[in-house]
Design a protein that fits this description.
300 residues, mainly alpha, 11 helices, 0% strand
């Protein structure tokens, strides 16, 4: 009897274990969210200096990384960015350590950003929802990976208006590969391939038309790749749902921020977070939404 067989006997245990795993993964996602953009900046900085034949040591635009010879998702070890003191294992327990430390560094009392425990909690909650929906199956494992990637991509895009190829492209290829196996989200190979192609080309076409009419870029190429990844995982049938949901969310939030927060409407907004949210909603409730809409249309 496998572990999945044991968990299938107790759905509650499956959900609880998924939530605990989500807390742990959420802690790692915080590392990815913070370090991956800096790693890319360091790489781009080096490439630019090499191309322009400049001394990279004399021109450093990535101060948070320049002090570390090795900077990746594993090294250096977790430490306070202000006092540089290492974070001990007991100080790195998801959510719990934040509460015990009062949201401050133990050594220098610098405030720890509230977003760290929020990402951990959100990952735990969404992981529990995935486990509730898919049960103790390989599809659940795949859907958890999909969800975690969406969370990382969403927060990075909020921070930097950047959807890294390091996340979107592997996510798309994994979705396509899983479609060949019985371990994916139940999408056929044909639907996955069409979904990836249609996801990319749909936003790319909108981008080209908008640029032709206005002379401005309405979105970035990362959005095309993220929707392609979502299409690979969910199939082309869910793309319309994802686009409508993400557009509605973006419009509502954009109008709300302009009216109540005084946000300049000329400042570009990241579209990736709305795609990520819509992608997760479609993963769990996409078929239900499609059935509701069809019944509404037929009934109307």
């Amino acid at each position: 009897m496998t572990l999945l067989d044991l968990l299938a006997v107790s759905p509650v245990l499956t959900i609880v274990l998924a939530a605990i795993m989500g807390l742990l993964v959420g802690s790692f996602l915080n590392v990815v969210i913070y370090r991956l953009p800096l790693m890319l900046q360091r790489e781009w900085h080096g490439q630019c200096c090499e191309y322009l034949q400049l001394d990279a040591k004399k021109i450093s635009s990535v101060q948070a990384v320049s002090e570390h010879k090795v900077f990746n998702l594993m090294k250096p070890d977790s430490h306070c960015p202000v006092c540089k003191k290492p974070v001990r294992p007991w100080q790195n327990i998801p959510v719990v350590s934040y509460l015990l430390l009062g949201g401050k560094c133990r050594e220098c009392k610098t405030k720890i950003h509230w977003r760290y425990p929020v990402v951990e909690l959100a990952t735990a909650v969404l992981s529990a929802v995935v486990a509730w929906h898919f049960g103790a199956t390989w599809s659940c494992v795949a859907a958890l990976f999909f969800t975690w990637c969406l969370i990382a991509a969403m927060v990075i895009d909020i921070d930097h208006q950047l959807l890294p190829d390091n996340i979107t492209l592997p996510l798309m290829w994994v979705g396509l590969i899983l479609a060949v196996t019985p371990y994916g989200t139940g999408v056929s190979v044909t639907d996955a391939v069409i979904g990836a192609a249609a996801g990319y080309l749909s936003l790319w076409s909108i981008y080209q038309i908008f640029k032709l009419l206005t002379g401005r870029e309405g979105m970035g190429y990362g959005d095309f790749k993220l929707l392609a990844a979502i299409g690979a995982w969910l199939g082309w049938q869910q793309l319309l749902t994802v686009v409508i949901l993400s557009s509605m969310a973006g419009a509502i939030l954009g109008i709300g921020m302009a009216m109540f927060a005084g946000r300049d409407k000329n400042i570009p907004m990241s579209f990736g977070p709305y795609l990520a949210i819509a992608g997760f909603v479609a993963l769990i409730w996409g078929n239900m939404i499609a059935d509701w809409y069809l019944n509404l249309a037929v009934g109307g």
